[in-house]
Each structure stands twice: as C-alpha cells, then as structure tokens.
Design goal:
- The protein is an alpha/beta fold.
- The chain contains 17 helices and 12 strands.
- Helix 6 packs antiparallel against helix 8 and helix 6 packs parallel to helix 16.
- The chain is elongated.
Length: 530
C-alpha cells in the first residue's frame, strides 16, 4: 500500500522549492536536473528514437506530478504505462538495471510505490468508456477526422448550421447521417441561402462516416459524454489522478486518436477559467505520438492548435508533446515548449542530419560539450535536458541520466486492471449509453408526420374524385352532357416520394442518444456560448 507520507519520504525526487527531480549526477554529469513546478505549465517536449527511454521519462514525470497533487492525462500506446497503478520492485527484472543507476546519480533513498490511476478507453474494453457528442466535436475537427475536401467541409458546416437553426441536437453518428440525408433532399432550398449543395459531396461524406463507424467510432459519439471534472480527482493522500487512455487498439485508427486528443485539449481550454501562473499546474496533458496530430493537418487546424497551446498555460494546463523527432512538431508550436528532454536521435540520412542540427539549435549552449554530438551519443535512459529556470529562462543543456521510476515498469495484468477500474471514482458512471431524443428521432418524426399528412391529403382527393364521378354520373342520366377531359388525372404525391425515402433511410438505423445544447469549442468551429 502507498505510504501516506510518500512525498516527504521520496528522497531527492522533489526539491524544497517544488522541483521535480528528473535525473543527472554521476562523474561525467552535471548537477541534478529538476523541472520546476512553477514553470511546468509552460509546456514541454519529450523526444527520441524508438527504444531510447521516452516511456520511462513519461512515467517518472507522471509520478512526480501526481505526488505533487497534479492530475495528469496520458495515452498508453504500448500498454506499458498501466504499470503506474502498481508498485515497482527491486526484484523485478526491468527494475534491476536501475539500481546501479540510482546509486550513481545519488538517488538511492527513494521508495517504490503505486499511484492512483483511472483507465479510459474509447472502445470501453480496457477502461471506462469515453464519449462526446457530434455537436461538441464540431465541423472543423470532424472534417479533419474524415479527411474531407474543402467543398465537403463546406457542406458539413451547412449541416451544422441547419442543425443549429432547426434545433436538432447532433449527438451520435446516426444523427449526423440522418441530417445529411435531410440536407441532400433539400439541397435546392438550402442552395438559395448557403450556396450549392452537391449530392455527390453529401454521398462522399456519408461513405466516410460509414468507414468511421466501422472503425468503432460509433461508440465514441453519444452520451453520457465525458465530464471533465472526472479527470481532476485528487485522492485522500493529496495525489493527483493519472488518467490513462488505452490506445493500443486506437492506434489502428490514427485520425480518430489525434482528433480525440485535440477535442479533449479544446474542452480543457474552453471550460477552465484563467488563473495566470500558478505555483503548480492544475492539469498536465501528455500528447503521445504527436506526429499523428500534425501529419497532413491543414494549416487552419495547426493554427488553432498553436492558439490553444499559447493560451492554455494561463489556465494552469501544461501540454507535453511526446514524439520521435522534434521536427514532427511545427516550429511555431515547438518554440512554446520550454521544458525539454531529448533522448537519442539517429542520423543515418541527410534528412536525419538536418533534423538533428535543428534539434540541437533549440537548446541553450553548454561549453562543456557539443549538443549535436551529445544527442547522437546518449544511451538508453540518458538524455539531453533543458528546463526553465528563474524568470522562465531556458536552462543550459545538460547530459542527464534519467532517474528510475517508483511504479512498476511494464504493464499490469488484466485482473489488476479490472480491479483498478472497479475501484475508480467513476466506476459504473459511463458504462451504460443513454438513449434520448435527438436529430435522428426529430427528423424521423417530421418525416412520419409529413407522410401521414400526404396520405390524408390523398384520401381527401380520392373522396373528392369519387363525389365528382357520382355527380357526373347523375348528370349523365338526367340528360345533361358534360365535357370530360381526355387527360388522365394524376394524384399529386408531392413530398410523399422524398419524405417516404427519407423515412425509410432513417428507420434503417436504430438506437439514439441524449439531447443537449448545440455548442462547440475553439477547435469545434464555433465558440461556446454562441
């Protein structure tokens, strides 16, 4: 069990002024390196080739933030981070190599410990289900997720505007699919106000939604939507909750992964109040596999991410990008990442060499060694680090041995994960999806009503025709001749064909979600409170 005096007993892991001990020490190394909590909301970067130690760095930072009472969100791409929920052990084969390192850097008095972890999963298999509504996601992020063209994105924006004006809550994929059917059927009317609506583009969006649905995204859109407060828990010992997203399966749908993390970052930005520069962050967000966020992203989206990264620090949120190469992060965003841990980069090609020089140029020079050479030479679990110091200035680059983690290296068992889920503060809250009225039901009801009105109108017309025939028959027998039209009367079924088709397309889908206000954040296309 966790020692309630853990922070005080944790050796040199925390400094008196609130710094997180990252590593250092040893004969050829500089003084111990610390990430100052006061500057932790000024963002950071953890970079390095595969197998160089990024996961351990991420793990020790998460432990330290938790010990300081700061909730954390991170993605578990390989399943290794689940070990944060269990205590490490000197007998564990993965911990054995760290014993000598701990002595070398003067960190031999720390304690092994577990941390409060809440597991999340978009598919609801390895963690509590995570959901949001289509409306909260917004057209900008959805367009990125669906990889729409400019024309298709325009039609999606029209659909969202129609939903706003018609009071149609967009909660799940079926809501959006039925709304697009409505937009396609009313294309001529909508074109007068919003411009040309192509049925081909509507069909293309529908096909992409089908692909997204087949990837499992249908479980992500709906209610109950994630309540951000459930990620901000602090346990009875004052430790911040570690929110771990199971991402091993999710990585098979990289666009969904990147879009979800962008949405979550946007929600934090929209919902948290300004607090300036606090003594420690209110929340820390680790964006693993960051290259998936920016790869092929349109400039408009990158600009939004830059805006959020620049402004969210004043809300007490630190954002840390984790990636193989610093070049994966756009330069304007890279310039905002003040705390850096650079593990080894390999320079086999000219492109690699260029990226290596660019990475070295972002550090404050150290006269004791060449930074570019150091980045190539550092071994596994070693890094070139630079953390913000007094007045937020970048510290001098240092070669640093990363300290050992206190929690377990490697994943926990399925039984341990299940036990952690049952004991979490949100156990059972998100298990059952809600099913209430939304755009799908409203449009289906309108279609059914229109079909019924058309049927009643047809009956009235048939009755009138019957009476007219009866009247004409009576006049014929009375000797009065009436001129008859040779043109066969056709019964009008205007609206019937389109509405029946719409009703049938609606009824082919089943299940609904809850109705909520139609609001979107800065990455959703519209500001909340609109």
């Amino acid at each position: 069990m966790f020692n309630p005096n853990f922070v005080a007993d944790w050796g040199t892991s925390m400094t008196e002024d609130g710094g997180i001990f990252v590593g250092g020490g040893g004969e050829s190394y500089a003084k111990p390196q610390h990430l100052t909590l006061k500057y932790a909301n000024r963002h950071g970067l953890i970079a390095g080739a595969t197998g160089t130690g990024k996961t351990v760095t991420l793990q020790i930072l998460a432990e330290s933030f938790s010990a300081a009472g700061v909730p954390v969100f991170m993605s578990d791409v390989k399943g290794d981070l689940s070990g944060l929920a269990a205590s490490g052990s000197a007998d564990h084969k993965l911990h054995a190599p760290f014993i000598e390192r701990a002595k070398k850097i003067g960190f031999d008095d720390f304690e092994y410990a577990s941390f409060p972890v809440t597991f999340w999963d978009l598919y609801g298999e390895q963690g509590h289900p995570v959901r949001t509504t289509v409306s909260e996601m917004g057209p900008l992020l959805l367009s990125q997720l669906l990889e729409l063209t400019e024309a298709q994105e325009g039609i999606l924006n029209i659909a969202f505007r129609v939903a706003d004006e018609e009071g149609l809550p967009l909660l799940d994929l079926k809501d959006l699919q039925s709304l697009l059917v409505f937009v396609g059927q009313n294309a001529k009317t909508l074109a007068l106000r919003y411009g040309f609506v192509s049925s081909q583009s509507v069909g293309a969006i529908q096909r992409r939604l089908l692909v997204l649905e087949n990837q499992g995204a249908a479980d992500f859109f709906g209610e109950p939507a994630l309540d951000l407060e459930d990620m901000f828990h602090v346990d009875e010992n004052g430790r911040g909750q570690l929110n771990i997203l199971a991402a091993d399966k999710l990585m098979a749908a990289p666009k969904l992964y990147a879009t979800f993390l962008l949405w979550l970052l946007s929600e934090l930005f929209e919902n948290l109040p300004e607090i300036g520069d606090p003594d420690k962050p209110r929340f820390v967000f680790f964006f693993d596999e960051a290259h998936l966020l920016f790869e092929g992203a349109p400039k408009a989206l990158v600009d939004k991410v830059e805006q959020v990264a620049r402004l969210i620090r004043s809300k007490g949120v630190g954002v840390y990008f984790v990636t193989q190469n610093p070049a994966d992060v756009p330069e304007d965003i890279l310039g905002q990442l003040g705390n850096r841990v650079q593990h080894a980069l390999r320079a086999f090609t000219r492109r690699d060499q260029k990226d290596l020089r660019a990475a070295a140029d972002t550090y404050r020079e150290n006269p004791r060694f060449d930074i570019e050479d150091a980045i190539k030479e550092v071994g596994v679990g070693e890094a070139v680090t630079s953390f913000l110091v007094k007045k937020g200035m970048p510290g001098v680059a240092e070669r640093t041995l990363i300290r050992p983690p206190s929690s377990q290296l490697g994943p926990i068992s399925k039984v341990e994960r299940k036990a952690a889920m049952l004991g979490s503060p949100v156990s059972g809250k998100y298990k059952t999806a809600l099913d209430r009225e939304s755009a799908f039901e409203i449009l289906a009801e309108r279609a059914a009503k229109a079909a019924k009105e058309a049927e009643e109108a047809e009956k009235r017309e048939e009755e009138m025709e019957a009476r007219e025939r009866e009247y004409q028959t009576g006049r014929r027998y009375s000797g009065t001749r009436v001129k008859r039209s040779t043109t066969k009367r056709t019964r009008s079924r205007r609206g019937d064909t389109s509405m029946e088709a719409f009703t049938k397309s609606m009824m082919r889908s089943i299940g609904t979600k809850a109705g909520t206000a139609i609001v979107r954040g800065v990455l959703g296309g519209l500001f909340k409170g609109r």
